[in-house]
Design goal:
The protein is mainly α. It has helices at 2-60, 65-77, 83-105, 108-112, 114-149, 153-160, 173-176. It is rod-shaped, with a radius of gyration of 24 Å.
Amino acid sequence: MTTLYIILGIVALLLVLLFVSYNSLVRLRNKAREGYSTMDVCLKKRFDMIPALVEVVRGYAGHEADVLLQVAERRSRISGDDLAGRLHTEEGIGNALKQIFVVAEAYPQLKADTNFLTLQQQIVKMEDELSLSRRYYNGCVRMLNNQCQVFPQNIVAALFGFKPMPMFAVDSDDERRATTISL
């Protein structure tokens, strides 16, 4: 009889550990998805603001069409459910926005324009929010990925199909370097 209680106790303990591990993985996965969604909201906000900025800059810098076309082209590529592809494309938009601000430096009237200054301040604020959301996302993904890889949660993760998620990262050396633009 004592052996039966010991076996039942071990089985009960294993079931509790299984439930706790599973619930922990679900919470972490949901936090990572929330982090991605938050980043997506910031990107959408930036996506919507870009046409206004481009129009203000276009009014002053019509001959700088290459930069404006680059922003519009990258903006049009953000779509679909490919997480890694979307993360890479939106980083390119950030680089193109930096170029627009450099173009603005060449036009004193544009730098003094109230609409441009307001848009510039809003975009700087959005870029800061986006940076924070990227860090939050990466932190959530790190915790999830750790749980998917450490013992014994890795067994539970494999059993229930939990997979590591991709971190947000800059892929090319060009994007790691400071942006330089010659006018």
